[in-house]
Specification:
Structural class: alpha+beta
Largest sheet: 7 strands, mixed
Shape: elongated
Radius of gyration: 30 Å
Helix content: 40-55%
Number of helices: 12
Strand content: 15-25%
Oligomer: single chain
Number of strands: 17
């Protein structure tokens, strides 16, 4: 229609006056979408990181802290657990399988996880998906072999057969490297979107062996010890039961075990506790994002209101050309519609680009997989409501223009 084309041309003619409003509105929508994307991505990342594990056992302390360092590799263990103290749990008749976890060493910024071959058989992620090998096979329990997570292999460009040197502790220095015990890469896992992708996996026996001649964080040369090592201490123990109906009963038994104080947590329940703690921060960020979005919409309202004072002559010309007041009302609202839609498209495009550029940084800095932003149906529905609200706020200046155009008629 003629007045629709006129609205497009009017919007294009005033592009220089509207670019600042467009920039502010794009920034507010971008912030609003980014908060939602980070919240949804972090929740999905935490939820998919562990599946099929009924109990996580570790030294007595905070349950949330135990979950964070044993599953998500966030933080450091408060204490270790002696292997003998875990033997009653391993031999318990209701326990189907156990997987030990030992943390403390690193490789070029990635965590080294000492474990058993049962890790690749029993640990699952997302909706009970089993770990799969993109290349190679599991390590041998008594061998100097290593299995890399997908992200470790990708970022460090490792292939099967490569030799790597593990660092004692989390700080990589020349004096802290286990140069006397190089490891051969025998397997690379498929991508899971969990902390497993950023982990380097070796056997408990190999981890214990390379620490045999280390005292107080320093390597002391001595005779190499060969043969099978029995783990002395572990960070945590993943437990799978024959029947989940007895999980609370076994949890109570473990929490009362002695002489070493132990603690057993349910991953799902502890994760719910984490969400409860984070909900206040999420709500605060959400409120701030909505306030900023409201300010952006008010900027649109202010731009339209002040713009009417400079468009009196234009309104008079339009009425002279025969446009009716309701058509002029439509032109003003269509200009707002174009402005908001353009800001939404720019915000979504910028967020997609930024999430693509920053996903590696988020993975290494926070161990959180941040997927490239793709608008969800729920977000598109929310954006539709934002558009409706913007049009509603436009009614007041548009009605003023409507009344002014009637005076010219």
């Amino acid at each position: 229609m003629f007045w629709t084309k006129l609205a497009f041309k009017s919007f294009y003619f005033r592009r220089r006056q509207q670019w600042l409003t467009l920039l502010a509105l794009t920034a507010t929508i971008l912030l609003w979408l980014a908060v939602s994307h980070v919240k949804d991505s972090s929740r999905e990342h935490f939820v998919r990181s562990i599946s099929g594990v009924d109990l996580v056992v570790g030294a007595r302390g905070g349950g949330l802290n135990l979950l964070l360092y044993s599953v998500f590799r966030i933080g450091n263990p408060t204490n270790e657990v002696h292997w003998q103290s875990l033997q009653p749990i391993i031999d318990h008749p209701r326990v189907s399988w156990t997987v030990p976890i030992q943390l403390g060493d690193s490789y070029r910024g990635f965590r080294v996880v000492g474990t058993s071959t049962g890790f690749f058989e029993h640990i699952q992620y997302a909706n009970r998906q089993s770990l799969r090998f993109a290349q190679g096979q599991p390590f041998v329990e008594d061998g100097d072999q290593v299995v890399l997570g997908a992200e470790v292999a990708r970022r460090l460009n490792h292939q099967l057969g490569d030799r790597i040197i593990i660092t004692h502790g989390l700080v990589d220095t020349s004096l802290s490297r286990h140069d006397e015990n190089p490891f051969e890469v025998v397997g690379i896992l498929e991508r899971t979107g969990t902390p497993i992708d950023q982990s380097v996996h070796i056997s408990m026996a190999a981890l214990d062996r390379i620490h045999h001649n280390w005292q107080t964080g320093t390597y002391v040369p001595g005779s190499d010890v060969l043969g099978r090592f029995q783990p002395r201490q572990v960070t945590a123990l993943m437990v799978g039961l024959e029947s989940r109906l007895r999980v609370f009963e076994l949890q109570r038994q473990i929490n009362r075990m002695g002489p070493e104080p132990l603690m057993a947590i349910l991953p799902g329940a502890t994760l719910a506790e984490l969400w409860q703690m984070m909900s206040i921060a999420e709500q605060a960020l959400s409120v701030i994002a909505h306030l900023v979005l409201g300010l952006g919409l008010l900027a649109v309202l202010a731009q339209l209101s002040t713009g009417l004072e400079t468009r009196r002559q234009e309104l008079w010309l339009l009425r002279t050309l025969g446009l009716r007041p309701w058509q002029m009302l439509w032109i003003l609202m269509l200009e707002t519609l174009l402005l908001v839609l353009l800001a939404m498209l720019l915000a979504m495009s910028l967020l997609s680009m930024l999430s693509w550029l920053l996903q590696d940084w988020a993975l290494l800095r926070f161990s959180i997989l941040m997927p490239v932003y793709v608008p969800l149906l729920s977000q598109l529905q929310q954006l539709a409501w934002v558009l409706v609200l913007a049009l509603f706020l436009t009614l007041w200046p548009a009605l003023r223009a409507y009344k002014q155009s009637q005076q010219y008629g």
